[in-house]
Amino acid sequence: MYLRNHFALGLIAYLFFSLASAQTTAGNQPEGPQKPPLPMGLQAIEPVALDILKAMSVRMSNAKTIQFDALIQSEYPSIDAIPIIYSTAAKIALQRPNKFDVAVWGDGPSSEVLFNGKQLFAYSPEKNLVAVADAPGNIDASAKFAYDKWGLFFPGDDLVLSNPYEHLTKGLTDAFLVGTTALVGGVETNVIVMATKELQGQVWIGVKDHLPYMASWIYLGDPSHPRTTLTYKNWKLDSTISSGQFEASRFSKAIVADFVQSDAPLK
Q1: Rounded (to 5) percent helix, strand, coil in the chain
Q2: Among 14, 77, 170, 217, which residue has the least CB neighbours within 10 Å?
């Protein structure tokens, strides 16, 4: 997976990402899965959960264009160890096989990441800085290249790769259907619990349209176990996207800066 909870680019710009979640109020929580406890050592993976994930993957991978909005809420401990939630919004547009544009704003610096099929651009509007690099010519390769080289990623990257199912189920130790709810995204959704050795959480996937609407992940590798939640909305699949969406000419007056590794301190 390329999913992570934040990155730095150029000198200051960064993004937040993962899948998304919904909270249910007391008395309205879906009933727990009706199944006996598994013997120790067995993996709790239900075929029905994998089928739902696969249907979502097929829907996403078959789309020639994808557009959606996201609200990301990332929880981190303060210096007093009290959790603080930072909110970020993102607007994503993608055209297969080799173009995407991601704009992010909210708590912290705004940023934009553009791949036009040949080059990767990371732009900071506040500082008018842009980092530019040649990148492989398709979405999968450019996403891997950006993460391997700079720790750079964008919200929803695992969902829009050519085979989302492969990435979402890599290292999976648990996956089961909790039930359905009509309280997420304005549609009926299947609620799937998923876990790997590094992550655990839930995803909400439309029963009829097979689109993701929310998810919540806890990062087990971090001692503080931070949580990232995200809400997806305004899905548009196979709709026309203006060619200008993927043109880098809007960065022509920006100051060119170098990419910085994701563990570099923000300035």
Answers
A1: 15, 40, 45
A2: 170
pLDDT band at 210 (very low <50, low <70, confident <90, very high): very high
Q: What is the pLDDT of residue 260?
A: 66
C-alpha span between 90 and 107 (Å, rounded)? 12
Q: Is residue 53 within 8 Å of 192, Cβ to Cβ?
A: yes
pLDDT of residue 261: 57
Say which range, 13-22, 30-39, 143-152, 253-262, has the weakest mean pLDDT.
Answer: 13-22
Cross-strand partners of 115: 100, 120
Of 146, 14, 193, 154, nearest to 86 (Cα)? Answer: 14
Contact 106, 126 (CB under 8 A): no
What are the two backbone dihedrals, phi and then psi, of residue 14, each rounded to the nearest 5 degrees?
-155, 165
Rounded Cα–Cα distance for residues 188 and 209 (Å): 10
The pair of structure tokens assigned to 180 is: 């359905």
CATH architecture of 44-257: Clam (2.50)
Structure tokens at 241: 């996207």
Interacting residues of 165 by C-beta distance below 8 A, sequence separation 6+? 53, 54, 56, 57, 58
Residue 86, number of CB atoms within 10 A of its CB: 15
Residue boundaries of the structural domains of the chain: 44-257
Structure tokens at 120: 């990767």
Residue 202 is predicted with a pLDDT of 96
Distance of alpha carbon 25 from the chain centroid: 25
Of 16, 195, 25, 172, give the one whose Cα is nearest residue 92.
16
